[in-house]
Write a structure and sequence with these properties.
Elements lengths: L3 E5 L4 H12 L3 E6 L4 H12 L4 E5 L5 H17 L4 E6 L14 H29 L9 E6 L12 H21 L3 E8 L10 H9 L9 H13 L7 E4 L12 H6 L4
Parallel strand pairs: 1-2, 1-4, 2-3, 4-5, 5-6, 6-7
Helix pairs in contact: 1-2, 1-7, 3-4, 4-5
């Protein structure tokens, strides 16, 4: 086994696919979740059926002290099994609609806490640990951080204003951390396209949105997992962003896809 990877939000949606894909590539997985429910137990069983280990840490990303405890609990869990933590995937996100004309400070703060501050704090702690573990890494694996962003950063529109700003900040942080954390960590990002249906989106609207991409289809959650696994294996890549969206960012949407496919008003 190469080592363990902490995946925030690793039991649901894109995070779930990432956890399973990395497990199938031989990594032990630590899943961060707000609640240890049936969905968490299910993916834990699926991962362990692949022959790798799965650990669960419970905690919220909307509080800095809780974020630090999540990381400390992760280190304690895997230390008991004598596993090294070699990867971090910042997948969990807060995603609520607002607009420049109605945005409130609370929304900005809440999105930044989960989507920017938490990933940065976890990355900082992960770098410090990786620096200590360098001599213990017998596989010569360079520790890897992958931040999950959004294809809309390549052609931003004003919907989900606070969310987009927080992801833009994390995009900038990815490059700066890659410079600061070398040679102990590689830091990259992935910008998924319309992988899963948005809130208030019908199945017909989702299918329409995916079919509108230049390739005529949309990415699947497994495509995002495969991209993360690629970055973990690509030992000479750092400070890069992969856009996995079947070309959706080339459309230059003026509104969020749910407004363009469902005919919704603000």
């Amino acid at each position: 086994m190469v080592g363990a990877v902490l995946v925030t939000g690793g039991a649901r949606r894109i995070g779930r696919a990432i956890s399973l894909c990395l497990a199938s590539n031989g990594f032990d997985i630590v899943i961060q979740t707000r609640n240890h429910d049936d969905a968490v137990s299910q993916i834990q069983n699926e991962i362990e059926s692949l022959g790798t280990r799965c650990f669960v840490v419970v905690g919220n990303l909307d509080d800095s002290d809780s974020v630090k405890k999540i990381f400390a609990d992760t280190v304690d869990l895997i230390a008991e099994s004598e596993i090294l933590l070699v990867g971090l995937v910042n997948s969990a996100s807060m995603f609520q609609w607002d607009y420049p004309s109605n945005v409130e400070s609370e929304s900005l703060i809440d999105h930044y806490q989960v989507n920017t501050i938490a990933p940065i704090l976890l990355s900082q702690l992960f770098h410090d640990l990786s620096k200590k573990n360098t001599s213990k890494n017998r596989n010569n694996f360079v520790s890897c951080i992958v931040n999950i962003l959004d294809q809309k950063l390549n052609s931003p529109h004003p919907d989900h204003f606070s969310y987009t700003l927080s992801k833009q900040a994390l995009s900038g942080a990815t490059v700066m951390m890659a410079k600061a954390f070398a040679p102990f960590c590689r830091v990259n990002s992935i910008s998924p396209g319309h992988v899963l249906a948005s809130p208030n989106q019908t199945s017909q609207g989702f299918e329409k949105a995916q079919s509108q991409s230049p390739l005529g289809y949309g990415p699947s959650p497994n495509d995002i997992g495969d991209a993360v696994a690629f970055l973990f294996a690509a030992k000479s890549i750092t400070a890069q962003s992969l856009v996995v969206d079947a070309g959706e960012h080339l459309l230059g949407r003026s509104r969020d896809v749910v407004f363009e496919t469902e005919g919704l008003d603000d």
